[in-house]
Protein: Methyltransferase domain-containing protein
Amino acid sequence: MGFYDDRVLPHLINLTCGMSALTPLRRRTCEGLSGDVVELGFGSGLNVDVYPDTVTRVYAIEPSDGGWAIAADRVASSRVPIERAGLDGQRLPFDDDTFDAALTTFTMCTIPDLPAALSEVARVVKGGGTVHFLEHGNAPDAAVRRWQHRLEPIQRRVAGGCHLTRDIPGALADAGLTVTAVDRFYQPGTPKSFAAMNLGVARVP
Structure:
């Protein structure tokens, strides 16, 4: 990684994704998590404070040393044991059927090969386990989608490869996961091109 990606971008992501308005959404996303959880895109640990009591351990997948460094205090004070267990969501270093659940928040937009990462999630989460997600993506309105396509090349350059136009429920379904619940909405106070949210749960067959 270059200086911007390693030293500057993690702080920008911590600031923008750490807005207090997102905390209730993170809490909703984590509802129902239990057992051992693999979290893709752990970042600076912004979900740590909303893990439910039923979570026993979190295995964090985070490629950015800068993001992990920012997370240090949150990890140290967490009541749930957290281990940085991998760097690449596209190649998870775990056996099949290792985890009870997976968690991903504002992560699917930046993974270069999203189908590969979701295939890995389906492999390492036990049958019947759940994938909890909070992701921005393709807007439901055509006019907004047109702006997303215009802005995406800039967004990818300045935001670590972040895509604005990914169909999150569709990507989960294409990976063989069953989306059992999804709430699609625009986050208030954010330009719609960046605010088309998908919050839900998918189940591993």
